[in-house]
Write a structure and sequence with these properties.
This protein is of the alpha/beta class. The protein has a single domain, classed as Aldolase class I (TIM Barrel, Alpha-Beta Barrel). The protein has eleven helices and twelve strands. Strands 1-4-5-6-7-10-11-12 form an eight-stranded parallel beta barrel, surrounded by six helices. Strand 5, helix 4 and strand 6 form a beta-alpha-beta unit. The radius of gyration is 16 Å and the shape is globular. It starts with a strand and ends in an 8-residue tail after the last helix.
């Protein structure tokens, strides 16, 4: 097993870093660049920027933010939100992103995944899945537009199809757990991890180091994205990393 990556997730709306619960009720947190710089200095492995209203307005406003970050932050940066075409992906990579996360556009046109993988390499293409458990509790459905739009797609089938098309990673966000601090949806992460042969980044629910340990050991996550626990200073990153090491989880040390 390689190192488990610990990722700081920054959801952005306009100039503000924001945070919600179940992807709703968004609250302003602060300046995203200042937070990104802080997490980089603390030693996070990667940054994940998501423009959370871009799909609604058919635009992506993260280029300036990513350019500024790339000037003095030297870890991989993934960018998502409103990326609809090869041209959009190319622009984001030119702005300084290492990877792009696509959701809505991939649902509408799955060939975008294979086109992007051929053009830029699978390692650049992250499929973002917003998953919500079905009412019967027997599976999960994929949503778009920050959890607003129902796609009718089964999450597990979609993850399998997307990786066959060339997606190099899955960013798997549990709408049910996002912002709750109650822990990750272990069944969801494990079920998706079992059907794909690419890294799965889990997002949504991190409230304590035990949640990270559980999702790696039980859910078989390859990477963990954190937001609330970092943004609100509930626990410093260094302490989270130390807890992972104590639990025998391989993570990068500074």
């Amino acid at each position: 097993m390689g190192n488990v990556r610990l990722i700081a997730r920054l959801d952005v709306k306009g100039p503000n870093l924001i945070k919600g619960i179940h992807l709703e009720g968004l609250r302003k947190v602060g300046n995203p660049h200042e937070y990104a710089q802080r997490y980089y200095q603390a030693g996070v492995d990667e940054l994940l920027y998501m423009d959370i209203v871009a799909s609604l307005y058919g635009r992506n406003g993260l280029c300036d933010l990513v350019q500024k970050a790339a000037e003095n932050i030297f870890i991989p940066i993934t960018v998502g939100g409103g990326i609809r075409s090869i041209v959009d992906i190319e622009q984001m990579l030119r702005c300084g992103a290492d990877k792009v996360a696509i959701n809505t556009a991939a649902i509408h046109r799955p060939a975008l995944i294979s086109d992007a993988a051929r053009r830029f390499g699978s390692q650049c293409v992250v499929l973002s899945i917003e998953a919500k458990r079905t009412r019967s509790g027997t599976g999960w459905l994929a949503f778009t537009d920050n959890g607003r739009e129902h796609t009718g797609r089964d999450v597990v089938d979609w993850a399998r199809e997307a990786t066959e098309l060339g997606a190099g990673e899955i960013l798997l966000t549990s709408i049910d757990r996002e912002g709750t601090r109650k822990g990750f949806d272990l069944d969801l992460v494990r079920t998706v991890s079992d059907v794909v042969n690419v890294p799965v980044i889990t997002s949504g629910g991190m409230g304590a180091p035990d949640h990270l340990i559980d999702v790696v050991k039980t859910g078989r996550a390859d990477a963990v994205a954190m937001a609330d626990i970092l943004h609100y200073g509930r626990m410093p990153y260094e302490q989270i990393r130390a807890a992972a090491l104590t639990a025998g989880i391989p993570v990068r040390t500074k």
